[in-house]
Amino acid sequence: MKEKVLKYLKEQKEYVSGEQISKKLGVTRASIWKIINKLKEEGYMIESSTKKGYKLMEVPNIITKEEVQSIIKTQCLGKNINYFSEIDSTNEIVKKLARKGEAEGTIVIADKQTAGKGRLGRVWESPSGVNIFMSILLRPQIKPDKASQITLIVGLAMCEAIREVTGLDARIKWPNDIVVNGKKVCGILTEMSAEIDCVNYVVVGIGVNVNQMEFSENLPHATSLKIEGGKEYQRGNIISVFFDKFESYYMAYKTDITLEPILPAYKTYCITLADKVKIIDSIQEYIAEPVDVLADGSLVVKNEEGEEKRIFTGEVSVRGIYGYV
Length: 325
Ligand code: BT5
Prior knowledge:
By secondary structure, the chain is α+β, with helices and mostly antiparallel strands. It folds into 3 domains: 2-58, Winged helix-like DNA-binding domain superfamily/Winged helix DNA-binding domain (Arc Repressor Mutant, subunit A, Orthogonal Bundle), CATH 1.10.10.10; 65-269, BirA Bifunctional Protein, domain 2, CATH 3.30.930; 273-318, SH3 type barrels (Roll). 31% of the residues lie in helices and 25% in strands. The chain has 9 helices and 14 strands. It has helices spanning 2-11, 18-25, 29-41, 65-71, 90-99, 147-166, 225-229, 235-256, 263-269, and strands at residues 45-49, 53-58, 81-84, 107-110, 132-138, 171-173, 177-180, 183-194, 199-208, 277-280, 285-293, 299-303, 308-311, 317-320. The strands form 3 sheets. It has a 7-stranded mixed sheet, with helices on both faces. A 5-stranded antiparallel sheet has the order 13-12-11-10-14, with no helix packed on it. A hairpin with a 3-residue loop joins strand 1 (45-49) and strand 2. It is elongated, with a radius of gyration of 22 Å. The model has no long low-confidence stretch (mean pLDDT 95). Bound molecules: biotinyl-5-AMP (BT5).
C-alpha cells in the first residue's frame, strides 16, 4: 500500500485530503496517516495541513522498493523489486532467487554492498547512500555463447540513460564499461547458469557511481556522475530511464537474437572505436586499430601487420594506448 500512496501523492499537483486518498485507494484514513508518517521518516517532505490535506514537496535521493516502483514505467521487467539497505552482493541474491524459480525481470537493488564483485573475482567498491547497485534476473531462450550479447544491450541502455538524465557525454568502452571523460562510472557483471546448449538464467549486475565524491587510492580510473557533472543526481531517475530503454531493447533482442537493431546507437557511443587500442590477452600485448563492432558483439581490430582479428568479450582486455580508455 505504501507504494500506492506514494504514487498517488506524486500524481497530485495540489493538496489532497486524507479522505480522498482513503476513498481512492480503499484504505482507512488511519492507515493513510501511518503511511504518510513512514514516508516522512524516510525523507519525503510531505506538507500536511488540517484544512487542505497532504502535498508531496520533495523526494529524497533514495532507491527503495517503493520509490523505484513509483517511477518505473516498464511493462514486463521490474514487476518484482527487492530492496536491501545493505547486502553482500546483489548478483548473489538474484542467483538465489533464480534457483528458487523467480520470474524473469525480478530486480534486486541495494543501497550498499559489503562484497560487491567485479569480473574475475575483482572487488567493486560499493559505499552506502550514493550509488546504484542492482541486478536483474533474465531468462532468455538462447545458447550460452550468446549471453554476453545481453551485456552490450545493458551497456547501451545505461549509457543512454546517463546521457539523458545528466547531459554528460557518457561513452561505452567495449564491451560494456561506461566512461565519462575517460574514467569509469559504471561496470556491468553478467553471470549465468547454463546447460550445454541452453541458458537457465542470466544475472546482469550493474554498478553506477552516481554521487560518490571520493574513491580509494587504488582506483585512479574511477569517477562519478557528480564529480564529472558538478551536481547531485537522483538515483531513481537513472534507474527508471534505464529500464525504459533496456526493456524495449531486450524484448526486441529476444525476438530475433541479434544485436543488429542496436548496433548503430552502440557504435555512436563506443569510444573504443575512436582510437588505437592495446589488446592484452593471455599470451601477448599488441597495439591495434579498431575497425568495427559486429552484430554478435565482437570487436574487429587490425594489428600492425594489417591482419584483422575478431575479439570476443571475456577473452581479452582492451585499453587505450595512453591509459584506461
Ligand atoms: C566490472 O568489473 O566493472 C563489473 C562491476 C559490477 C558491479 C555490480 S554492482 C551490482 C552487482 N553486484 C555485484 O556484486 N556486482 C555487480 P571489472 O571490469 O572487473 O572491474 C572491476 C575493477 O574496477 C576493479 O578491479 C577496480 O579496479 C575497479 N573498480 C572497483 N570499484 C569501482 C568503482 N566503484 N568504480 C569504478 N571502478 C571500480
